[in-house]
Amino acid sequence: MAPRDSAEPLPPLFPQARVWPGKMVAMGALAGFWVLSLITYGYLSWGQDLEEEGSLRAQVEERPEAGTAVTSQPHLIFILADDQGFRDVGYHGSEIKTPTLDKLAAEGVKLENYYVQPICTPSRSQFITGKYQIHTGLQHSIIRPTQPNCLPLDNATLPQKLKEVGYSTHMVGKWHLGFYRKDCMPTKRGFDTFFGSLLGSGDYYTHYKCDSPGVCGYDLYENDNAAWDYDNGIYSTQMYTQRVQQILASHDPTKPLFLYVAYQAVHSPLQAPGRYFEHYRSIININRRRYAAMLSCLDEAIHNVTLALKRYGFYNNSIIIYSSDNGGQPTAGGSNWPLRGSKGTYWEGGIRAVGFVHSPLLKNKGTVCKELVHITDWYPTLISLAEGQIDEDIQLDGYDIWETISEGLRSPRVDILHNIDPIYTKAKNGSWAAGYGIWNTAIQSAIRVQHWKLLTGNPGYSDWVPPQAFSNLGPNRWHNERITLSTGKSIWLFNITADPYERVDLSSRYPGIVKKLLRRLSQFNKTAVPVRYPPKDPRSNPRLNGGVWGPWYKEESKKKKTNKTKAKKMQKKSKARTRKQRAARSSTKCHPRVTTG
Q: Where is the Sulfatase N-terminal domain (predicted)?
């Protein structure tokens, strides 16, 4: 898509037809058998090893029945992990075992210049709309459970666009895009079905969440109703995988499918079934050990999802995209080493994510993509793959990057607005003067233009947290990596290509580059919409809603109030009209003349 504004060019960073196979599987009676097994036994192949894949393929002949129509539109499977750190995958050197992720990434395309947002709601909103958060009003923080706020209803979502071209759309997992009105719910934003949680976190077994003392409720939904029938202590990662398997077992693989799987893992609270701790007894740090167990369970879940795609005839015409929603949180076991910073910050550790694409439809498999890719890019990319249309009057911030990923072509993206947050805590020493009169550096903002990255204001916790921070070596060596931000500093410039770990600030050495990036920030800011961050509403308390987190804004009561207000206004107008008429009538009457003598 075309950028909203042009800007001064910077030197290029790297001087440097889609085909879908016509073979799919018709699963008919066999699919019915597996649906029955799912109902009977709960889920399939839990804990099976990767080696079983071959035998499972042998069980189901991957040949379509005679006369079966095969869709030219690929099945789109988007898997979003929660709070997975940049280092926390085997192929990035982690001690945590992730054989499924390693295998899928190795056979696909690893995205090694891939960016998301530093916290949950912004990443999810940008994925589902293709727009930066400054263009949806969600540029500050997350949507809180008690806020009357949600993804703006005037934004056409990805599932809505896919439904226009015949896709069945299903969501499993964490929503976190607001729910105060029924119109904000996933099933009203384009999903045929929804099974998961509305909030940002909660207990993995009981599915309860307390936002504050006395403000607690159940948070597990099936479509638009609380899923009380599933209040049986099943770990959410496993429960969500069961639902994915059920969807695949019951869907016709000759019809296009969009499946958005947003796992709760590995977000806090740190909980995992006991058997996943077996390989991590040597990890001294208890949070890291629990986190490792959670990630191992997640890896196994994705293995089972992949097996189900193959078993039910979807795999050969599927595109699987895997992404974390933001960086890891070291205090909750995550690791972004060797990147700087953590979740909630605009340092690379908060926004550079684990990501890859796995698909038989890729032209160049087993490769690494180092081109610039952002989470907003999935919106136009998936709509294009689905043979859909994007309205010309909709200004997106994402780009179609399929040829970049599949064929190794240059990315159409040259910049990323990481964010501009006008209400975040201002940097004490920021000023217009520090921003050369172009930008107030007290404001939290971050932008990437080709290989340059600029940060202003208060970018957040800035440590590098090395692996030994999670070992029994203690904090002393970790502290050797810690720094204190320079007093009075409110602007930083890094060459991310040469210095991906943000060790050397170049802002004083290249003031010309700083000014160019500040101008680009200013141009973006002119297109920003007002921030949506309302105060909490006491009516959101689950105690007022049957013990469940859910929509509390009553449309009917609003209409009644509106009708009453209109009635009152009409009554006032009627009375005023009557008074005027009386006055007019009285003025036309004859009055006796009074004479005085």
A: 74-386
**Do the beta carbons of residue 421 and residue 118 sit within 8 Å?**
no
**Which token pair is 133?**
């958060």
How many C-beta atoms surround the C-beta of residue 281 within 10 A? Answer: 8
Kindly tell me the sign of the dihedral angle through the C-alpha atoms of 246, 249, 255, 261.
positive
3-state secondary structure 457-519: CCCCCCCCCCHHHHCCCCHHHHHCCCCCCCCCCCEEEEECCCCCCCCCCCCCCCHHHHHHHHH
Question: Which tokens sit at 432?
Answer: 């217009």
* Residue at 351: amino acid letter: I
Tokens of 413: 């993206």
pLDDT, tens only, 336-346: 999 999 999 99
Per-residue tokens: 346: 């605009």
Question: Which has the minimum average pLDDT: 40-44, 229-233, 563-567?
Answer: 40-44
User: Is 39's pLDDT higher than 50?
Assistant: no
Of the candidates 503, 485, 486, which has an alpha carbon nearest to the alpha carbon of residue 495?
A: 503
Residue holding tokens 């040259």? Answer: 414
* 324 close to 355: Cβ distance less than 8 angstroms: yes
Structure tokens at 137: 């009003």
Secondary structure of 540-551 in the HEC alphabet? HCHHHCCCECCC
- Nearest alpha carbon to residue 419 among 392, 384, 455: 455
Task: Indicate if the alpha-carbon torsion angle 424, 494, 3, 73 is positive or negative.
Answer: negative
248 sits in which H/E element? helix 236-250
The H or E element that residue 321 is part of is strand 318-324
Please tell me the distance from the alpha carbon of residue 362 to that of residue 383, in angstroms, as a whole number.
Answer: 17
- The token duo for 34 is 């597996």
What is the pairing mode between strands 318-324 and 355-358?
antiparallel
Domains and CATH numbers, the chain: 71-413+531-561 (3.40.720.10), 415-470+479-529 (3.30.1120.10)
pLDDT given at position 578? 53
Kindly state the average pLDDT of the residues 529-539.
97
Q: What is the distance between the alpha carbons of residues 518 and 510, in angstroms, rounded to a whole number? A: 13
Angle between helices 286-311 and 99-107 (to 10 degrees): 50
Least confident among 187-196, 328-337, 581-590: 581-590
Check if the beta carbon of residue 121 is closer than 8 Å to that of residue 362. Answer: no
Please state, in angstroms and rounded to a whole number, the distance separating the CA atoms of residues 329 and 333: 6
pLDDT digits (tens, 9 = 90+) for 111-166: 999 999 999 999 999 999 999 999 999 999 999 999 999 999 999 999 999 999 99
- The dihedrals phi and psi of 291, each to the nearest 5 degrees, come to -60, -45
Active site residues: 120, 176
Angle between helix axes 52-59 and 286-311 (nearest 10 degrees) is 30
Over residues 72-99, the pLDDT tens digits come to 899 999 999 999 999 999 999 999 999 9
pLDDT at 253 over 70: yes
Helix (H) or strand (E) holding 209: strand 208-212
CA distance 317 to 20: 7
β partners of residue 226: 221
Structure tokens belonging to residue 106: 């190795």
This prediction has a pTM of 0.83
d(CA 411, CA 114): 12
